[in-house]
Structures are given as structure tokens and as C-alpha cells.
């Protein structure tokens, strides 16, 4: 059973979303996703300022097993990326919900987050 924090929302494609107090959201990959990928060796990050559509691929996570596209759970404008992942991509394995965050964005339609799964639904989906 993977770690599924109750304060996050989850996409079927195994990304998580955390609303922040300023109206932005933080996005990363789930514990389930990092475990399925294995030892992560590379993360391709989007550019700050990029405008992403909901469910669009915004980058790639590569591991010793596979390369996987990463999808944005809600559309919006990229405010920040976690540049520390370029030098330490394995942070996605060790701390996927903390230091392993991938990007922060300003949602174009905050209501899109409501369509994402809560922790209970995601736990059932990955069981």
C-alpha cells in the first residue's frame, strides 16, 4: 500500500495537487507512481510562464525501468519549478509529497481541481 496523504487531490495519471493559500497549486507525482517507476534518474521540467492545459503532458520522469510522461491535473500558468530535481531527481523517490514537488501553477479554472480524486478514491483506484 502506498502513502496517500488526505490533504491532496489526485489524478488518474498518478499526479497529486495541493492547493496553496495564495490561490496557486503545487503538483508532483504520487508515491504509487515513484514506486512503479523505480529509481528516478532524470526529470524534465516545464518552463516558468508556460501555459498548460488540463491533462496535458508537461514533462518526463525517467528511471532505470522506464520513461513516463507527467500530466498536469489542472490547467494554468507555471509560476515555479523545482530546479533542485535537476541535480537530485531521486528526491521524487525519497520525498514525493515534500521536497519532490515538481511545479507550482496558477490555475486558469480552480473548479478543475474538484474533478480530481480525494485520498480515499485514489487509494481504491491504486489498490
Q: What is the secondary structure topology, with strand pairs?
A:
Layout: E1 9-10, E2 15-19, E3 25-29, H1 31-37, E4 40-43, E5 51-52, E6 57-63, E7 67-71, E8 76-81, H2 84-87, H3 91-94, E9 103-107, H4 119-125
Structure description:
The protein is an alpha+beta fold and 127 residues long. It has one domain: RNA polymerase II/Efflux pump adaptor protein, barrel-sandwich hybrid domain (OB fold (Dihydrolipoamide Acetyltransferase, E2P), Beta Barrel). The chain has a 6-stranded antiparallel β-sheet. A 3-stranded antiparallel β-sheet has the order 4-6-7. The longest helix has 7 residues. 34% of the residues are buried. The model has no long low-confidence stretch (mean pLDDT 96).
**Average residue pLDDT:** 96
| Unreliable stretches covering 5 or more consecutive residues | none
Strand order of the largest sheet: 1-2-3-9-8-5
Oligomeric composition of the shown chains = single chain
Number of DSSP helical runs: 4
Class computed from helices, strands and strand pairing: alpha+beta
Based on CA atoms alone, the radius of gyration comes out at 13 Å
Shape verdict: globular
**What is the H/E order?**
EEEHEEEEEHHEH
Level of helix content? 10-25%
CATH topology type: OB fold (Dihydrolipoamide Acetyltransferase, E2P)
Please give the number of β-strands.
9
β-strand amount: 25-35%
Count of structural domains: 1
Distance between the termini: 7 Å
CATH class: Mainly Beta
Amino acid at each position: 500500500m502506498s502513502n496517500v496523504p488526505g490533504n491532496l487531490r489526485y489524478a488518474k495519471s498518478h499526479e497529486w495537487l495541493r492547493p496553496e493559500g495564495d490561490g496557486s497549486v503545487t503538483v508532483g507525482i504520487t508515491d504509487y507512481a515513484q514506486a512503479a517507476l523505480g529509481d528516478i534518474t532524470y526529470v524534465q521540467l516545464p518552463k516558468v510562464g508556460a501555459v498548460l492545459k488540463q491533462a496535458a503532458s508537461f514533462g518526463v520522469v525517467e528511471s532505470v525501468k522506464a520513461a513516463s510522461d507527467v500530466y498536469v491535473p489542472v490547467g494554468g500558468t507555471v509560476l515555479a519549478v523545482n530546479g533542485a530535481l535537476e541535480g537530485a531527481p531521486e528526491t521524487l523517490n525519497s520525498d514525493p509529497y515534500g521536497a519532490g514537488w515538481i511545479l507550482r501553477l496558477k490555475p486558469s479554472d480552480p473548479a478543475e481541481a474538484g474533478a480530481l480524486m480525494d485520498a480515499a478514491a485514489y487509494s481504491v483506484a491504486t489498490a
